[in-house]
Design a protein that fits this description.
The chain is α+β, with helices and mostly antiparallel strands and about 350 residues long. The chain has eleven helices and twelve strands. The protein has a six-stranded antiparallel β-sheet with strand order 1-2-3-8-6-7, with helices on both faces. Strands 4-5 form a two-stranded antiparallel ribbon. Helix 4 packs parallel to helix 9, helix 6 packs antiparallel against helix 10 and helix 8 packs antiparallel against helix 9. The protein is globular. The N and C termini lie far apart (about 65 Å). About 35% of the residues are buried. This is Aminoglycoside phosphotransferase domain-containing protein.
Length: about 350
């Protein structure tokens, strides 16, 4: 078996060749099932029966580089390793796309390796916290089980020893970056709303630097993207799709991660989730974040979500620009509201 890697950036075969190959049911012998192909910002996901395969796109953005096959290989193995922490039964491993002497592509067979895919057990969409909220079927028992799983993970994870001054600087850098993006003239967002949100955040960081610095000692290598659509309830909580490409984005205070999940659940209409999460978290870890801290964390996460929402306008002519402007401004309004709650 050859392990030689074809590492030309997005070369031959092209990523589109690989997408076509993975979209073909004949690629998966013994799987008498159609292939459902889902495109995301950074990858394609191929659903085949009870399994899923993820192929990274050939892209390069600030802080993320999938432009070579070697980079995509590294990220695929990192994704499996990191996600097995909170979803050990989902992430089955990494498989090779190979090309034989006849030039045909094959999955996990002999030949020159041309790319790598993450192999997963398929999780039903209806089992996510997001889906349960939309179906009005999410219970307090569900959320307390999620909080128990996450809290034990945070409690048992080593802290990273982040310098307190560096922790404060991270908030400033993130806010400056968010504001620069949000003020891009082409996005045409409400400038007064941006100013209100960012000034409130900046004033809070400056005025509460001592309290925020004290949280640096609790920072762990966490998940990094703890949204309701990444948390599943079957039959016990599983959390998928952590950020694998940038460790810095995973280095978080557990209270920040839980605040993000709480904020996103509130956006979906389940504002009761946050108190349940923190009740269990405090019992298990002995950490009791103040309401002001939680509101600040929710506000700065909402500001980041505003930036991510408006970035959709860069995706091409088919984007619903009005929708994403409304989403960005909705998150900015959340930022303002949470900063109002964060006042002493």
């Amino acid at each position: 078996m050859s392990n030689r890697l074809n590492d030309s950036p997005c070369g031959s075969p092209t990523i589109q060749d690989e997408v076509d190959f993975l979209s073909d049911p004949s690629t998966y012998p013994g799987k008498d099932a159609p292939v459902t192909t889902i495109e995301t910002h950074m990858a394609w996901v191929f659903l085949v029966g009870d399994e899923a395969y993820k192929l990274k796109k050939c892209i390069k953005r600030p802080g993320m580089d999938y432009s070579t096959r070697a980079a995509r290989r590294h990220d695929a193995f990192a994704e499996v390793r990191l996600n097995r922490r909170l979803a050990p039964t989902i992430y089955r491993g990494v498989q090779r796309i190979t090309r034989g002497p006849d030039g045909a592509l094959r999955l996990n067979e002999d030949g020159d390796v041309v790319d790598w895919v993450v192999h997963m057990r398929r999780v039903p969409g209806h089992a996510s916290v997001h889906a349960h909220i939309e179906a009005d079927s999410l219970t307090r028992s569900h959320i307390r089980a999620v909080a128990d799983r996450l809290s034990r993970f945070y409690r048992d994870s080593p802290t990273v020893g982040l310098n307190p001054s560096a922790y404060i600087e991270r908030f400033h850098s993130r806010l400056d970056f968010n504001e620069d993006v949000l003020r891009t003239p082409a996005y045409a967002l409400n400038a007064s709303l941006i100013s209100d949100a960012t000034e409130r955040l900046r004033n809070h960081i400056d005025g509460h630097a001592s309290d925020l610095s004290a949280r640096a000692s609790r920072v762990v290598d966490g998940h990094g993207d703890l949204r309701p659509e990444h948390v599943y309830l079957q039959p016990y909580p599983l959390v998928i799709d952590c950020i694998a490409f940038d460790r810095g984005l995973r280095l978080l205070d557990p209270a920040d991660e839980l605040s993000f999940l709480s904020m996103e659940c509130t956006q979906l209409g389940a504002e009761w989730v946050g108190p349940e999460l923190f009740d269990v978290y405090s019992d298990i870890t002995g950490d009791h974040p103040t309401p002001s801290l939680i509101s600040f964390y929710q506000a700065q996460e909402a500001c980041t979500r505003a930036r991510l929402a408006i970035w959709h306008l860069d995706d091409g002519d088919d984007v619903d620009a009005a929708h994403w402007r409304n989403e960005a401004e909705r998150y900015l309004l959340t930022t303002v509201a949470e900063m109002e709650r964060a006042k002493p």
